[in-house]
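so i finally got all the pieces together for this one. its two components total, 438 residues if u count the protein bits. some of the lines might not be protein, just check the labels. i wanna see the whole assembly predicted at once instead of chain by chain like last time, that was a mess tbh
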Amino acid sequence: MSQVRVRFAPSPTGFFHIGSARTALFNWLYARHTGGVFILRVEDTDKERNSDEFLRVIYDSLRWLGLDWDEGPLKGGAFGPYRQSERGDIYRDHIARLKASGRTYEKDGALLFRISGEPQVIEDAIRGRVERTEEKDFVIVRKDGSPVFHLVNVVDDIAMKVTHVIRGEDHLSNTSKHTELFKALGAPLPIYAHIPLILKQNGPGKMSKRDQGALIEEYQKRGFIPEALVNFLCLLGWSPKDDREILAMDEVVKLFDLPGINQSNARFDEKKLSHVNMVYLHAMQPDRCADFVAGYLKSVDFFKGAAPETGYLREVILLCQPKVRAVEDLPGFIGYFFSDDYPIDPKAKEKIFSKGDPKARLSELLAAAPGADFSSDAALEALIQGLAAANNASTGDYIHPARLALSGTPVGPSFYGLLRVLGRERVAQRISRFLATA
RNA sequence: GCCCUCAUCGUCUAGCGGCUAGGACGGGGCCCUCUCAAGGCCCAAACAGGGGUUCGAUUCCCCUUGAGGGCACCA
């Protein structure tokens, strides 16, 4: 069999949303699975609603998701151009052929296509045999002379030698129009695969651009890990048929196939997405994690334009990586590492001061600091255990007041890691200040 | 209204005639522990309803109901 050619054909009329992303993903997966070609074709025939800004969003989102295209805008290919606004000559030729075939007529200045009245049969790779009879003649060229979606979509699939049309189920009922056009143009039908829709999390209907969590750009801004979002999207309508859920892309590429796609719509679940994202965050390699998070902190202007010391920043990030569920939780979690001006949680203070002698413990720690080894968590743990043993106290008697003094909050990363990363200077300075004011 | 599609825990799903109906998220509990997360263990939670076919239906067929989509000079 000849090479598989699939296309993702978005229209730059709004921000790139999650349903489009999954359609792109499934096309990409099928192309990679079969060693085929993934085409990006921009359907910008609606001059009123298109914009260059939305076009950039499509490119950026696809790149961020890692869905590289083999043919398309910015990339080229033998079947270009890949923006429909630049393919007027090709449409004119095909329109002329349809006119010559006697299947068209004019009405109110528009060009209509006369349907055959025959039942249209499509063999869908996901749904099986679907029959539908198109009932009305339909417009193929507007009165302003521009061709409409149904026409250009089919013409381009023919011209670009598309073998498989993988798209949302919302196109299933339109497919009878398309098969009529394929036949009228004397072209063989592609294999169709209509994938189920993503339903909005709350309320009725499919997810739309206005729904919470619908926009890819938003996940990008919020510091989601692209591989996690893609993994989650794979699970919406497809599964590896065993109990695995966290899967590397090359594994999905190996297993993915059209018959394995589900037939029923899937409801979007932000909690599950958060979970997958957390798993990816915790599994991220140190170098990548440090870069990724540093980039995120910069994007939210966490340092207010100032440049942090990169070695220290890296240590802070890696210390906190396993402690947060998402990158976007980090700014609220690491503030005290970069400023001495942090508030002391009054409730935590009250609780800690309600028993024992926290000031005595802090003084002992402060006194031990100059001679202590701050180079490893293990050394610091030994230090605290030594102090506890020497002063007839528990390690907790040091840890809780010290954490509060050093960070202002009762929650945070591993205590020994906290000491190590802050370093001797900051630890000593913060404890003495706390003792002086508390 | 007409046409098309779909139907397993709250959600995402496994199951393709015989299973104690499995996993994951979320929820509840316990454990671990320097806090909080994370992690480990346990619990609750589903075959929409009715007819067939069959020795036997979650699984195959039909109907009902429910959900979703399409019926534009939008894509």
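The mean pLDDT of chain A is 95.
The CA atoms of residues 12 and 55 of chain A lie 5 Å apart.
anyway lmk what u think
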